[in-house]
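User: Fold this; tokens only.

Assistant: Input:
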Amino acid sequence: MAWSMLVVAGILEVVWAYAMKQSDGFTRPLPALVTVAVMVASFTLLSLSMRSIPLGTAYTVWTGIGAVGAFLVGIGVLGEAVSPMRILAALLIVCGMVLMKLSAP
């Protein structure tokens, strides 16, 4: 159950990052409200998952899902640039998350 909560927390991190971008520096009320609400949900699930997943593993996986997810949303939704170096960086993040998961007790 802890791993499920952690994955959902990571996905919510992507949602709040996108909503924050849409809030235009917190000048648009609805996206700003979505950012804060989803951020609280993401942090709550992260903290609950840390009851049984080590801090380093949980935080690395949470930020990794957020980083790679935001990267994909940036490309797919916002039309951000794709380059071999950015793709390699995302793949290295995924490799790091897999290694952290495999090293968890």
